[in-house]
Design a protein that fits this description.
Layout lengths: L14 H26 L1 H35 L2 H4 L2 H8 L2 H7 L1 H11 L2 E2 L6 E2 L9 H11 L13 H24 L10 H26 L12 H24 L5 H4 L2 H32 L2 H10 L4 H19 L3 H4 L2 H23 L15 H23 L9 H11 L4
Antiparallel strand pairs: 1-2
Helix pairs in contact: 1-2, 1-17, 2-4, 2-6, 2-9, 2-10, 2-16, 2-17, 4-17, 8-9, 9-10, 10-12, 10-16, 12-14, 14-16
């Protein structure tokens, strides 16, 4: 392929994208109805919001991970990012959906999530309805989490106000990047890399800060007495891993069809496998660092996170994470031949997305159940609700993907990529 032959229709998404869009929407509707029934019934309503938070954090993590990888690609360049750039942008365009999906938590779900755990008499008071005897929690609830500070900033200083700020920043960054990218669907051919970098450089910093505060608000505050300074970085590593894993799955699906047959080469697949390996190691490093530092400190208030998750059956899930979220993918991704096969890599990538779900389950559910068997009757919702959210997310993602060419054809670097992709290389 050469620059003279470049046109938008030549790089349109294959028909399989429309098929997956329709099937994903059907899955979202079916599982969404089941989730809605669970949300309405009083007996399953509380468990529904536990499951909803797991599903929301899983798909928000994929969305923000794609935003972060897109900004990394603009900062670093490289052929590895050009072939998945439009897939990343299609994921970023789902941010308004994720903002809308957080409304049920803000409007209805807060009392069900943040009122604390009292199972078996070994729970704790939550920040939404703190024990008056717990002066520190009462103060934290009023000043930071629930009611805000002064009357002037009453709304923006609280949980709800910060959530609005987080989504506003993420959507603003995504909109700026997508607006520039849309210019590259029409002539002339030009180099917009400096403009992208001016957005991506501060965007990466804002992303790191906002998601760190967001997971503190939304997940760590489920147990408001426990803190971890590396908590946000664990979630960042997980988001990056789940995002690149989804990109590997999508590129493998489209690798049987044009134009991806011509664009996707073994070297780019290998590069994506290397990124998976990097993020697997990063997640393991951050997670082990949190365990090592807190365990060495041996302070009762800090160590409660691990003492709860290393007993009563939760330790088996922790062991599953050690083996299948780190050791198995780590050794598989060391193989060069494995990383160069898109379909083999896609199976592992799909499994890693499932393991991200298991990791979120391990972080969230023990806050509500002392024993892993304590909530077993409602754990089916931990699958149903994330699948419902994922069905709608995937439907919108593939709809976005089919609306634009799979390559920003009037990007100067895309022209270089086309010459590179047309060359014979393995």
């Amino acid at each position: 392929m050469t620059a003279a032959r470049v046109n938008n229709t030549e790089f349109a998404a294959p028909d399989i994208v429309n098929t997956i869009h329709q099937r994903s929407l059907a899955v979202g509707i079916i599982f969404g109805v089941a989730s809605l029934i669970a949300a309405i019934l009083p007996g399953t309503r509380e468990q529904f919001f536990h499951s909803y938070l797991i599903g929301f954090m899983l798909w928000l993590g994929i969305t923000l991970g794609c935003l972060a990888i897109l900004m990394i690609q603009h900062m670093t360049g490289g052929m590895w990012g050009m072939v998945i750039r439009r897939q990343l942008e299609a994921a970023v365009k789902t941010l308004p959906l994720m903002a809308a999906l957080f409304i049920p938590v803000l409007v209805v779900g807060i009392p069900y999530l943040y009122s604390g755990s009292h199972e078996g008499g070994a729970g704790w008071s939550g920040w939404f309805n703190p024990d008056p005897a717990d002066k520190h929690l009462v103060e934290m609830s009023h000043v930071y989490l629930q009611r805000g500070g002064t009357a002037t900033f009453l709304f923006l200083n609280g949980y709800i106000g910060r959530a609005i700020v987080y989504f506003a920043i993420w959507i603003m960054i995504g909109w700026a990047l997508l607006r520039k990218s849309a210019q590259q669907d029409d002539p002339p051919i030009e180099n917009l890399s400096p403009r992208f970098r001016r957005i991506a450089a501060p965007g990466l910093i804002l992303y790191a800060f906002t998601i760190s505060f967001a997971v503190i608000d939304w997940v760590m505050s489920l147990d408001p007495h426990w803190i971890s300074t590396i908590y946000g970085f664990i979630f960042i590593a997980g988001e990056l891993l789940s995002a690149i894993s989804l990109m590997v799955v999508v590129e493998a699906i489209m690798s049987n069809y044009e134009p991806m047959v011509s664009l996707l080469k073994a070297k780019e697949v290998q590069d994506h496998g290397k990124l998976m390996l990097t993020f697997v190691m990063l997640w393991a490093y951050f997670s082990f660092s949190q365990l090592l530092i807190i365990w060495a400190g041996n302070l009762p208030m800090e160590i409660r996170f691990f003492t709860r998750r290393l007993n009563s059956g939760w330790q088996e899930i922790g062991l599953v994470l050690v083996i299948f979220h780190f050791f198995v993918p780590f050794f598989m991704l060391l193989s060069r031949s494995f990383k160069r096969n898109p379909h083999q890599l896609a199976w592992l990538a799909g499994f890693m997305i499932f393991m991200r779900f298991v990791d979120l389950f391990f972080y969230i559910e023990p806050n509500f159940h002392k024993s892993v068997l304590g909530g077993v009757a409602g754990y089916w919702l931990d699958l149903v609700v994330p699948i419902a959210i994922g069905g709608f997310w995937m439907a919108l993602f593939f709809r976005n993907l089919r609306l634009r060419p799979l390559l920003p054809v009037y990007d100067m670097h895309a022209q270089q990529f086309l010459e590179y992709a047309g060359a014979s290389h393995e």
